[in-house]
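Backbone-to-sequence.
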């Protein structure tokens, strides 16, 4: 049995919802800052986070990982938004951000992307301030993880009843206590701090973080941004990982 720490982190209304696994022991919580979650972790930790990390400074091309993820997700493609350019992170409001994104790339900034700018900026600044976290913290997208594990995109939207059941079927195969852990996390933090899908997303991120040696990169050979951060998403592929014990 592995004692490596695996963490899944998803943005939520209260800050960041996380699941942490140390071997088979699990805990969860909501932190106001990602730094609070990672502060005590050693170099053997693997943390997956649903937030863009590598960012372009200018140019018309989207990040390749965003384009390829949409292509793989079919009916769930709208869950992958175009990441903002790094200079946009300092914009004071949406109007200024949208204008700056258009000026630097030729396209506007979605409201969804703007709503995440504070969290993207937080992670970007954290990785600049604490370079060691670059080896621990990796961008991942829950819908890409579910699609990789299931062999194809989910049939139903994650906020729907059928979508929740569909994802829980996969998670219950990955971990025998998935239902109880997710129910406990939602009981503790659901409502004002986190939505049900935030809990599910953080859990699948943590499940995949338990297999760091098996994670694949999308694209396979990612570009790095001007800060040297890879512009990629990581994922697992294939149901052969269902129920597999993490590598020691």
């Amino acid at each position: 049995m592995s004692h490596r720490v695996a963490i899944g982190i998803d943005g939520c209304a209260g800050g960041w919802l996380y699941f942490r696994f140390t071997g088979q022991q699990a805990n969860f919580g909501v932190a106001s800052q990602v730094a609070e979650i990672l502060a005590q972790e050693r170099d053997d930790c693997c943390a997956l986070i649903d937030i863009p990390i590598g960012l372009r400074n200018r140019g018309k091309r989207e990040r390749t990982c965003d384009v390829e993820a949409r292509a793989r997700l079919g009916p769930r493609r709208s869950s992958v938004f175009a990441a903002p350019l790094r200079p946009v992170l300092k914009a004071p409001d949406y109007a200024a951000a949208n204008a700056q994104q258009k000026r630097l790339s030729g396209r506007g900034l979605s409201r969804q992307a703007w709503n995440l700018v504070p969290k993207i900026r937080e992670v970007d600044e954290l990785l600049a301030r604490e370079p060691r976290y670059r080896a621990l913290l990796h961008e991942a997208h829950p819908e890409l993880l579910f699609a990789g594990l299931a062999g194809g995109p989910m049939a139903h939207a994650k906020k729907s009843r059928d979508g929740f059941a569909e994802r829980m079927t996969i998670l219950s195969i990955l971990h025998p206590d998935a239902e109880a852990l997710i129910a406990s996390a939602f009981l503790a933090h659901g409502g004002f701090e986190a939505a049900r899908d935030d809990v599910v997303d953080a859990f699948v991120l943590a499940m995949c973080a338990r297999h760091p040696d098996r994670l694949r990169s999308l694209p396979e050979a990612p570009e790095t941004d001007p800060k040297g951060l890879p512009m990629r998403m990581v994922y697992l592929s294939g149901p052969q990982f269902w129920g597999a014990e993490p590598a020691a």
